[in-house]
Write a structure and sequence with these properties.
By secondary structure, the protein is mainly β. It is built from no helices and eight strands. The chain is globular and about 45 Å long. Bound molecules: zinc ion.
């Protein structure tokens, strides 16, 4: 996943200007998609296009390799602190899945 940074602020979305210094020159770097669940919301009543997969979770993922968070969708139960990886991108949305605990290496 691509990260844009300036003045120590990192984001997955490219802004027009840095809020700190006003520069439009952002440093870009590629980081791992892996992350940790920072917070989540369970969606019971979904918009029509997602009704078929409800209930699902809207998860804020703290990336492991950047000081940035990604809003993602998950279809399985999660808890804060769970390790997650990008499963796929769908219509501009990130779908994450849990890392099986046997594969978590600390
Ligand atoms: Zn800046």
């Amino acid at each position: 996943m691509k990260i844009y940074s300036c003045c120590g602020n990192e984001s997955i979305t490219k802004k027009y200007f840095c809020p700190e210094c006003g520069s439009s020159e952002f440093e870009e770097r590629e980081v791992s998609n892996d992350g940790t669940v920072y917070s989540f919301t369970k969606i019971h009543i979904a918009p029509a296009e997602f009704a078929g997969i409800a209930p699902y979770y809207v998860v804020l993922v703290q990336l492991d390799e950047a000081n940035a968070k990604v809003t993602a969708r998950m279809e399985e139960e999660v808890a804060i602190g769970d390790k997650v990886v990008l499963d796929r991108e769908e219509g501009g949305a990130y779908l994450y899945k849990k890392v099986p605990s046997a594969e978590v290496v600390n």
